[in-house]
Design goal:
Elements lengths: L29 H21 L6 H13 L8 H17 L16 H26 L5 H14 L5 H30 L5 E3 L8 E5 L3 H11 L5 E5 L9 H4 L4 E4 L7 H4 L7 E3 L15 E4 L8 E3 L10 H10 L11 E3 L3 H5 L2 H9 L5 E7 L8 H9 L4 E5 L14 E2 L2 E2 L1 E3 L6 H14 L9 E6 L3 H12 L6 E3 L8 H11 L2 E2 L3 H9 L2
Parallel strand pairs: 2-3, 2-5, 3-4, 5-6, 6-7, 9-10, 9-14, 10-13, 14-15, 15-16
Antiparallel strand pairs: 1-8, 11-12
Helix pairs in contact: 1-2, 1-3, 1-5, 2-3, 2-4, 2-5, 4-5, 4-6, 4-15, 5-6, 6-15
The structure holds iron/sulfur cluster and FE4-S3 cluster (SF3).
The site of iron/sulfur cluster has 13 residues, from loops.
Length: 518
């Protein structure tokens, strides 16, 4: 730890590609970074105290929330982290106590052990966020819930490199189950997404922008704004919500506003409507819109209004609604180009015969999954250029907020399909996996033998858990960018390269030439 007292290397924009030591590039202050490490240590103690016992639902929720709150760009509010630490200490005491864990031990010591410990911790945080979204919809899985304890317990232990790798692979499979239960929770609550054209036009009148991943928050907001003359616009990872029948049926779910998270300070500047943050990624709000920012659940930023969670995970959005009416919204209509979404697994599988036929007939030569997080680095133009340069006889599946790098491009269609198919949020990587498995079955080969290449972009911990799932499924030759994680040590990287053929992205031209050479 530096003199200034923080060390964080959990995200892709970490200072100098090594670690934030004075203040976070994201705006995280050293005291908050320290508290997040204390919270992690306190949760390791909970897991120790709960070992061999049934901890109970409240403790299950506490671990999910504590892990979720420490994902990048979720909670910058030290008092909220303090409250979670206090709850964790109380849970440990209630469970009979446990040996203390030193937060300094999390990211220090042998480089390879630190790298592997951090990888498991960051993946676990990402999974907890997904587990929480399923949980609020009433869907849990005992293995997933149990792994929040197991993962924390193992993070607090020493392991050989082989043991760490085995844990990471086990975790990757558990995260697949987590994405499966979230898929089940979402599709049970709102139906299977259907291909949907989403307006990006701005309509006159009061509105609320909702961002993040939590579909229950959107549903409740839509219910509570019905008939009030307020339009709802999705932002960032909320875009795929437009594809769900149970959400698109609301006529005041008007469209999508803005692009991915890193542009929010520009896009929300003087916005004449409130912005409601349901999950990551929140950036330090500028004074020009700080008075209209609302957070909820584990999301927090000092000084911003917070909508508390009531019984049954329900919320009262009255303050957000009042703010929308007070600000009045846009005065005139601004025309925007529509975006397509809703190509989740059910929509793609329902035309599986046509996709398979198109591949067999040579109409589709290759399928790319270009998915993952967006971010601020200029190198992320790679993904725009990559999609622009893909041959016209290739399909591009996409998911997560990285899609805003290219979802506005007109890259044409192949027969009935647009060439870019938006499968959903980052957690809808589950849909992409299901489609890949179905294609492999139809072609009687392994996923690695399909004309399919994964070109992923990462920023925060959800990408870490998804990558571990893909590796645990044996998927080879994934291209990862825009840069490799600072928490992957050279020795761990060589394992990932040798065992899984993981490749850092280079240039779109060189990567496309290599991928398509066969
Ligand atoms: Fe730095 Fe990223 Fe950690 Fe923020 S989350 S302190 S930018 S490494
Ligand atoms: Fe984006 Fe934050 Fe990761 Fe769900 S919203 S993908 S970065």
């Amino acid at each position: 730890m530096s003199d200034a007292g923080m060390f964080c290397f959990q995200c892709e924009q970490t200072a100098g590609g090594k670690g934030c030591t004075r203040v976070g590039v994201c705006g995280k202050q050293p005291d908050v970074a320290g508290k997040q490490d204390q919270l992690t240590a306190a949760m390791i103690e909970v897991a120790r105290a709960a070992h061999g016992k049934a901890a109970g639902g409240a403790t299950d929720e506490l671990l999910m929330q504590g892990l979720f709150a420490t994902v990048t760009n979720v909670n910058f509010d030290g008092t909220r982290i303090d409250a979670l630490i206090a709850q964790a200490k109380a849970a440990t005491a209630r469970l009979g106590g446990a040996p203390a864990y030193d937060p300094q031990a999390l990211f220090h010591g042998d480089a390879d052990a630190t790298s592997l410990r951090a990888t498991l911790l960051f993946g676990l945080r990402g999974m907890a966020a997904y587990a929480w979204h399923a949980h609020v919809l009433g869907v849990d899985d005992p293995v997933v819930t149990g792994w929040h304890y197991k993962g924390l317990l193992e993070i607090g232990r020493d392991h050989s490199v082989e043991e760490w790798l085995a844990l990471l692979m086990e975790f990757g499979k558990v995260n697949l189950t987590c994405m499966e239960i979230l898929d089940r929770a979402n599709t049970t609550a709102y139906g299977h997404p259907v291909p949907t054209s989403v307006s990006t036009s701005r309509e006159p009148g009061p509105f609320i922008v909702i961002t993040g991943h939590d579909l229950l928050d959107l549903k409740d907001l839509l219910e509570q704004t019905q008939g009030k003359g307020i339009n709802i616009y999705t932002h960032g990872e909320m875009l795929p919500a437009h594809g769900y029948p149970g959400l698109k049926k609301y006529p005041h779910l008007k469209g999508n506003y803005g692009t991915a998270w890193q542009n929010q300070q520009k896009e929300f500047d003087n916005l004449p409507g409130p912005i409601f943050f349901t999950t990551n990624c929140i950036m330090p709000p500028k004074p020009s819109y700080a008075d209209r920012v609302f957070t909820t659940s584990v999301v927090g930023f000092p000084g911003m209004a917070h909508i508390p969670t009531g019984p049954g995970h329900r919320k009262d959005f009255t303050p957000v609604i009042q703010k929308a009416l007070e600000l009045g919204g846009w005065k005139t209509r601004v025309e925007g180009k529509p975006l397509m979404t809703g190509f989740a697994r059910n929509a793609v599988m329902s035309v599986a015969d046509q996709v398979i036929g198109a591949v067999k007939a040579g109409l589709v030569k290759h399928i790319f999954l270009v998915g993952g997080c967006d971010g601020a680095k200029p190198g992320r133009n790679y993904y725009t250029e990559f999609v622009e340069k893909t041959p016209k006889d290739t399909l591009i599946l996409t998911l997560a907020c990285g899609k805003y790098r290219f979802n506005h491009l007109d890259v044409g269609s192949i027969g009935p399909f647009p060439r870019v198919l938006d499968m959903g949020q980052c957690n809808d990587a589950y849909s992409a996996i299901q489609v890949a498995v179905a294609l492999a079955k139809a072609f009687n080969c392994s996923v690695n033998e399909l004309p399919l290449t994964l070109v992923l972009s990462w920023y925060e911990q959800k990408a870490v858990c998804i990558l571990l799932t893909l590796l645990a499924l044996g998927i080879q030759n994934i291209r990862l960018g825009p840069t490799l994680p600072a928490f992957v040590s050279p020795a761990v990287l060589s394992v990932l390269v040798n065992k899984f053929g993981l490749k850092p992205v280079t240039t779109p031209d060189a990567d496309l030439a290599e991928i398509l050479k066969k």
